[in-house]
Structures are given as structure tokens and as C-alpha cells.
Design brief:
Layout: E1 2-8, E2 12-19, E3 22-26, H1 31-41, E4 44-49, H2 55-58, H3 61-67, E5 72-76, E6 88-90, E7 95-98, E8 101-107, E9 116-120, E10 123-127, E11 130-131, E12 134-135, H4 143-154, E13 161-164, H5 169-179, H6 184-191, E14 200-201, H7 202-208, H8 217-225, H9 233-245
Parallel strand pairs: 3-4, 4-5, 5-6, 10-13
Antiparallel strand pairs: 1-2, 2-3, 7-8, 8-9, 9-10, 11-12, 13-14
Helix pairs in contact: 4-9, 5-6, 8-9
Length: 248
């Protein structure tokens, strides 16, 4: 199986997941770059997997469905009513067949209520739930929901490859350095950063992503300095996320 990042819009990523002569595309925000990538790879589009309903992850669906009639269009069930052309909704733990592979769905409410991750062959397509060195904003869920979603992902094997929805890694690592100024792994990752920064591994994320490190004394101390009043993990997450919302 092959994964091909497809840059879209200003800083989005779609992804082609290729098996033999067939491909699924994750989060096509626009159709033209996806079509170009399909042509370059010489593969036929068989499915669209949307991680959540936001337009910058679904904007290309209509044109792709028109150009490739009969393809499957998948999204988490709680987001389905907000996107046209959906043919299948999925829930936590459900599996999708793709060639010889089975794709596991992980429900990640928080950024949106129906947000999902697609996990296949050691590759996790996390959309805007987990970014490289960061996470998405909490728009529709609660901080506790988002924290639980991130912890679910954090327990994936360390060699799991993380393919996220945006190229935000440089700014995320600058924030991570503000949260943990003595974290040598963060400093080394920032110094070695190249673009595109995807994929990262879950082991690297656990070492450098402050939103996966809310049990670390250094992260708790930084959260306290920002006004934290309770060391409960999801409260630490909420304080750090609020800090990131206004971080320059």
C-alpha cells in the first residue's frame, strides 16, 4: 500500500491511499489536485474518506463524484447530514474493506462531533483531530471529549504513521517549545523540520506534542502559569488548548 500526500488550498493535505490500480482519497478539499495526483499515479479513484464535515476537507467531493460515478463516499455518522453525496456512514470500531486491507474507523469527537480517524496498515489519517505536534480547535465538542479522543490516538503503536489535515507543524512546534522549553526532543524536531512534515510517527508525537503530554510535570507547570486550577488531565489539556488559541 502507498500513501501520496496531495497539497490543497493554502496548507491542507488530501491523501491518496493506493492499493494496486485503485485509490481512495482522504479529505479532498478540492478536486483538481486530486485528479492530477490520480493521473500521475495511474490509478482509478474508488472511494472518498472524509475525516469530518468542514469545507476545507470536503469541498472537492461533488466534482470528484461527478467525474467518478459510483464511488463510495464515507464520513462519520454524526457529520453525515452536513455533507452531500455521502453513500456510507461509519462509527467507532467499524471497518471498511479496501483491496486486501481492512480500514479501522476511530471516532474522535471534539473538533466536530462526527470526526473520525481512518487507520490502515499502520497509517492513521487523523484530519484535524491530531496534527503533527498539535491538535485541532475544539469547535463542536467539549475539551473533555477532545482530550479523550487524543488519548485514544496516543495509545496507537509508536510506529504508526500520522497523516494529518494541515501543514501547521512549524507553528505547532514553536508552541510546543513555549510549553516545554527544556524538551530536547521538541528542539531537535524543530531544528530538523522540513516541508512537507508528514508523516510523523506516534512515538515522535508522544515525545513532542504538548496535547499528548498533559500528565508531564513540565506541561502541568506551564498550564498552571496560564491559570490552571485543576491538574485533572482534561483540564490541563483545556488550558493548553486555550493558550494555543491565542499564541502568536
Amino acid at each position: 500500500m502507498q500513501v501520496v500526500p496531495v497539497p490543497c488550498l493554502k496548507d491542507n493535505y488530501a491523501y491518496l491511499v493506493i492499493e494496486g490500480g485503485s485509490a481512495a482519497v482522504v479529505d479532498p478539499s478540492e478536486a483538481a489536485p486530486v485528479e492530477a495526483a490520480l493521473a500521475k499515479a495511474g490509478v482509478a479513484l474508488r472511494a472518498i474518506w472524509a475525516t469530518h464535515h468542514h469545507w476545507d476537507h470536503t469541498g472537492g467531493i461533488a466534482d470528484l463524484v461527478a467525474a467518478h460515478p459510483g464511488i463510495e463516499v464515507v464520513i462519520g455518522e454524526a457529520d453525515a447530514e452536513k455533507v452531500k453525496h455521502i453513500t456510507r456512514t461509519v462509527s467507532d470500531g467499524e471497518e471498511i474493506e479496501f483491496g486486501s486491507h481492512r480500514v479501522r474507523v476511530i471516532h474522535n469527537p471534539g473538533h466536530t462531533l462526527g470526526a473520525v480517524t481512518y487507520l490502515v496498515d499502520g497509517n492513521a489519517f487523523t484530519g484535524d483531530t491530531l496534527f503533527c505536534a498539535g491538535c485541532g480547535r475544539v469547535f463542536e465538542g467539549t475539551p473533555q471529549m477532545m482530550h479523550e479522543s487524543l488519548m485514544k490516538l496516543a495509545h496507537l503503536p509508536g510506529d504508526t504513521k500520522i497523516w494529518c489535515g494541515h501543514e501547521y507543524t512549524a507553528s505547532n512546534l514553536r508552541f510546543a517549545a513555549a510549553v516545554e522549553p527544556d524538551n530536547k526532543d521538541v528542539a531537535a524536531r524543530l531544528a530538523a523540520l522540513t516541508t512537507p512534515s508528514v508523516p510523523a510517527t506516534m512515538a515522535v508525537e508522544r515525545a513532542t506534542n504538548p496535547f499528548l503530554r498533559d500528565a508531564q510535570p513540565s506541561v502541568i507547570a506551564s498550564a498552571r502559569a496560564q491559570g490552571l486550577t485543576s491538574d485533572e488531565p482534561w483540564n490541563v489539556f483545556a488550558q493548553i488548548r486555550e493558550w494555543k488559541n491565542n499564541f502568536k
